[in-house]
Task: structure prediction
Amino acid sequence: MKAFVSGATGFIGASIVRELLKDGHEVRALARPGANRKNITGLSLEIWEGDLLAPESLAAGVAGCDLLFHAAADYRLWTRDPAAMYAANVEGTRALLEAALKGGVRRVVYTSSVGTLGNPGDGTPGDESTPVTFADMVGDYKKSKFLAERVAEEFLGRGLPLVIVNPSTPIGGRDIKPTPTGKIIVDILNRKMPAYLDTGLNLIDVEACARGHILAAEKGRVGEKYILGAQNLTLREIFMLLEEISGAPAPKVRLPYTPILAAAYVNELLSRITGREPLIPLNGVLMARKFMFFDSSKAIRELGLPQTPVTEALAKAVEWFRANGYVKK
Result:
C-alpha cells in the first residue's frame, strides 16, 4: 500500500514513516519547502513538497494513496501569532481531509492529542469517554487541536473512513525541535532545571506511538478514538529516572505553584512586548495544575498497542540528544 504522511519531518511523523517502511509500504512524505528534513534523510521514500495551507498541493499529493496519516501540527506552548497556529492545526486539517475524501483514501488516521480529552486532574486517569468541553482547553495549542478534532468528526459524518488517535507524551530519539517535553530532558542534561512543579505526565516511547498509528489504520474502528500512552509518572519520578539513566542530577526543590504562576504572567507580558519566547511559559504552568494521567487500555486491548518500558524510551532520548549536540560537554 501507499501511505501519505503529513508531519513526516517531525518527531512522531518521522517514526510513523520508519514503521511504515519496515512493513513494506510505499511512503509519500509531505514536506514544506525549506523544512528541516534531517529526520527522513536517506530513507527510501517520495518527498512531496506542499503545505497544509495550500490545498492544491495536498490534493495532488494524496492522489493514488491508500492510507493517510495526518501527524502534522504546530505544537508550541507559546506563540506571538496564535492565528498561524489555528490556521495550521484547524484549517490545515480541513484542507487535508477534504483532499483525502475527494481522493478516495481507504483509511485515515488523524493524530490528535490527549490534551483534547477530559482529565480529572487529581491523579485519576482520564480515558476516551471522560467528559470535556472547549472551556477545559488551556492555551492556543490545546484549543486549536480540540477544534481540529471537531473538524475530523465532521468528515466522519461525510463518510471519510477515519480513526482518531490521541498520543500522550512521546519521548525518544529524533526529537529535533525539541518538543516541550524534550526540552525538559535537554535542560536536565544541561543542569538548567534547579527546581520543578508538582505535576505528572503519561509517557510513551515514540516508536511505540508510531506503531500505534499503524495499528489504528489496520485494526481501529472507524469513528473511534484511541489513547496512545504507556506509563503515568509524576514529574519527580521522571527526573529520578533521568538521573539514574544519565547521571545528571535531578532537581530536588519542589516549587510552590502560586509564585511561579505570578512569574509566568510577568514573563508572558514581557514576551508580548519583546516577541521572545518566555523563560516560564504561562500555558505550561497552567497545564501543570493537572496531573495529565491517562488510561490506554482501550488501545492496548483493541489495537495491541506496544508498552515499551519508559526507561528504554528515556535512555534513547538521552542518547540521541547527547549524540546530536543538544547537550553541552
User: Anything to note?
Assistant: Residues 2-177+202-234+291-309 form a domain with the Rossmann fold fold (CATH 3.40.50.720). The chain has a mean pLDDT of 95. The longest helix spans residues 82-103.
